[in-house]
Each structure stands twice: as structure tokens, then as C-alpha cells.
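Appendix B. One record, verbatim.
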Amino acid sequence: MDRFAHLDWPFFEPRHAELARRADTWAAANLGYAHDEDARAPKGATADATCRRLVKELGAAGWLSHCAPAEAPVEVRSLALLREVFAYHAGLADFAFIMQGLGSGPIALAGTAEQKRRYVARAARGEAIAAFALSEPDAGSDAAALATRARRDGGHYVLDGVKTWISNGGIADFYVVFARTGEAPGTKGISAFIVDAGAPGFSAGERIDIVAPHPMASLRLAACRVPAENLLGSEGEGFKLAMQTLDIFRTGVAGAALGFARRALGEALARARERKMFGGTLADLQMTQAKLADMATGIDAAALLTYRAAWVRDVQKRRITREAAMAKMQATEMAQEAVDAAVQICGGLGVMRGHPVERLYREVRALRIYEGATEVQKLIIARELLKA
């Protein structure tokens, strides 16, 4: 089974196949340590160290330049392909890779030349860890409910509020924080700020422990003073900037889902061929063959949607709000089903702590929630259809 057969599709150029195979070789040689069973410590301390190491190594190897380019737009095909490769090998590596892009993405889109030099370039080299801070206790999928506020005070903005479910919370060197700067209703009064981890009044508080451990925490901004030049773009443009960022990186979530699903299929095939059962192997049973067929077909269908969205963005230079939502929804739902099928085929081994499909079972679940839950993707798709 050639995991890269899809690179012959017309969405790609020869350089994409070379990039994916080179990343695959590097990942196979360098990511053996990057699994969460090696990163379970009190309140995620070892996961923190693992992610710091991953960011440095991904930066030194040049991979982060594909998700955090300071001088050019993100190429979505390369981004999704690299997420597919890293997720196949280690979910924590995929996490470390993409958070550098998501956390610095708004700066790459709307930042000044100095902001890009100071933050995006350092993120691309693995010298600074980035984070994206939009969610709040009462504002997740509903960004219009965002309550964190920012008021101008001379040469500074003063931010007050709480953010939660923030990936890289507690280890990031800088955060893109979204806060209200006006009384405009809904999302119209939201602005975006770069907040350094050492800013007065900023603290990373309660750590959040999730099923596939990685650095995550709540943030508190208590009269947090941020230089006025750390505003991204103009006041009131923060929500639009957040959505532009997610339009780019949402396709990458679909890429990660493909990586998890391909690994699940590979593990299921191997187990089905080797497991002796009823005088033959598990693979001889038609029910097993049906599961494998569903997995393979689902992967190809999701890959077509994923790389269609990436191609439209890269080549046709069009907004991909609808296409990215379709890809994210289909790929993550498919990956959940594929991983579950792999667990079933692997039987008892599939629920043994540390087995590849057991890791996948925990890693894949969050993809259906973050960067817009499946239900939100359906609303986005319907809204775009009705607008048309």
C-alpha cells in the first residue's frame, strides 16, 4: 500500500511528492520519542518538554517555514501534506508543527514588517513558541459571546478577561489574543493583540489535562498592559482576522485526520494479515474485508475534498470557507470511524495502552471539535450555500 499514491493527482506538482517523502523519511528517523505515553507526567510537565524539543527540531529541520512563512502566504497543499505525514508518525509532532502556524498566522496576515520579523520569523525557526487565544469559558464555537476586553490607555492597551482551552498555554512565548475594544454587537467589536508571555498582568493558570496529552491551559489577563503597537491591523478587525486564519489552517486539520486514518488502515491491514483465526487469517473474513474497504474508500474521499480545498486556495487564489469546512468535516468524521474500525480489527491489542491504534483512538477525537466542531462546519457550509 503506497501512502503517497494520491500525490499523482492533478492537485499536486512534483515538488509536493518530494516534500512529503522527504518529511516521511525525516519523521521516521526522528520522531520515535514523540508519543504521549512518554509525555505523561504531573500536569503535563513532560509533554511540555517534549513539545519544546519538537518545536526546536522542526524549526532546525526547516519544516516550520511551511506553516509560519513571514514573507509569503502559507501554501495550503504543503501544510496539509506535512500534517498528514507528521500525524501518521506522531500526533504530538503534528500538534507542535501546526500550533506554530496557527499561533503566528494572524501576524503573518495582518502584522507589520517588524511584527513579522519579531514573531513569525522566530516561530518559523523554532526559537519562539506561538499560541492562538480565542476561546473563553462561555465563548467557544460562539465567538460573538467573547467577553475579554481591551481599553486604550495612552501608549498601551489594558486587557482583562479569561481565555481557556488554549493549546501551548503555559509554554508559549507569545499569544495572539482576541478581545473587545468597542461596544459594537456580536463579532464587530473584536480586535487582535500580540501578548508576550512576560507581559504585566498576564498569567497562564490552570492546566487542562486531555485524553491525548499536550500543553493546554487557561489564561488570565488582569489589567494586562500591552504596547499599542501590538495591535494587529485596526480595531474591530479581529474576528475577520481569526476567520481568515482558520480558513487557511482548517484544511490542515483535514490533513492531520488523513494521517491518523492512514496509520489506522496500515495497522489494521497488518493485524488482519497476521492474526490466525478459524483456520485462516482475520483478513480472509468478509466482514474484515468490508471494514477495510470502507476505510480505504473513506480515506480517498476525504483526501479528494482536502486537496481540492488546498488547490483552490493555492492555485485559484479563492476563499475556501465552504471547501475547507467540507474537508474538515468529512476528514475528521471519517478518521474517527477508521480508527474505531482499526481498534475493532486489532481486538484486545487495540485497547492496550501504548499500542498505535490505542494512541490514535485518543488522538483523533479532538479533531472533530477544535477549529470549529463538526456541527459548526455544517452551519458554515449551509450558510455559504444560501449566500450563493
